[in-house]
């Protein structure tokens, strides 16, 4: 592998970063090691320590991963004095030192993070008026609002008119795209096309496999509720189309509609892009990653070190990675943007561009994270872009005295939305246009 993952867990000690929230699940191991040998060692270790828990490799992506997830299995029968109650306990038990010598086992980490919700914003400004329900909706959390638009797809120049005779490629790490938004007969995206003149392509057409779906808590709502990240990738792709109509978009789905994203799959996506770029320098020019990671230090330092290593490799290949500042209205750096705030001897140079959000009048958006680590600010509030068709029943129609109403979760191809993720998409498109 082209990534130096050794010592990845030690960089943070020099950085003095704060310690936010903690989140849990599978164990991760660097794929450069012998995974089968690691699994055998872990299971022998657990058995010697009196635990019935076991680990096994997850059915991974078809593409070669940078890090491999190990599924942790509970024992079928409860053992007396079982020393393990959770995944974190498994890791702690494996790292338990029974003698004075250093722990001889493999380098393992617990592998999931929480990701920011792109919809609600802290301290959202609300309006007043004769219809307070509608006013709260329109001026509320700057989330998705259905709108009507009649806009033709932006015109594209022919390949012969472009520098180098090819289209710049923006890799979009987000939710999957809806090829029909905003609907026929004038879809802005159309069907995925891996050819050199296509508007967009699915990374799966080039062999990318994210990996298996992992179990999540079941939905408990009795009504059809729009997932918090539904349409996020399609909205981002529409913004890139607006500012870089000559570009090609490479969709790399790493986020589920409910916002679930696994850090190992994100690391592996960056690693796969680097591998493809190494084989073909025209494969990707800009990476748009509208994701912010909530991490807990020092527990998550090793995984963040792996993330830093793959970003550094992309930087060495000349590929900028554009990320959002986050929507907490805070000066506290979020990852991957926090890497721009770090100047630590011996760590790789990371080509991360962190983007904050502006209001339509050019002022800083109140929800946008801020500080010297935020390098660029772009419009992020009340943007209009593509949205897949959706008609839910979470929000009932708001009606006036004449009986005419608006259904706040009935989308027909367009939406207004806000967030630093979308400022990030705009800037990625600008880089591609250049």
TrEMBL record:
<dbReference type="InterPro" id="IPR015500">
    <property type="entry name" value="Peptidase_S8_subtilisin-rel"/>
</dbReference>
<dbReference type="Pfam" id="PF00082">
    <property type="entry name" value="Peptidase_S8"/>
</dbReference>
<feature type="active site" description="Charge relay system">
    <location>
        <position position="232"/>
    </location>
</feature>
<comment type="similarity">
    <text>Belongs to the peptidase S8 family.</text>
</comment>
<feature type="domain" description="Peptidase S8/S53">
    <location>
        <begin position="227"/>
        <end position="432"/>
    </location>
</feature>
<dbReference type="InterPro" id="IPR050131">
    <property type="entry name" value="Peptidase_S8_subtilisin-like"/>
</dbReference>
<dbReference type="InterPro" id="IPR000209">
    <property type="entry name" value="Peptidase_S8/S53_dom"/>
</dbReference>
<feature type="active site" description="Charge relay system">
    <location>
        <position position="174"/>
    </location>
</feature>
<protein>
    <recommendedName>
        <fullName>Peptidase S8/S53 domain-containing protein</fullName>
    </recommendedName>
</protein>
<feature type="active site" description="Charge relay system">
    <location>
        <position position="421"/>
    </location>
</feature>
<dbReference type="InterPro" id="IPR036852">
    <property type="entry name" value="Peptidase_S8/S53_dom_sf"/>
</dbReference>
<keyword id="KW-0645">Protease</keyword>
<keyword id="KW-0720">Serine protease</keyword>
<keyword id="KW-0378">Hydrolase</keyword>
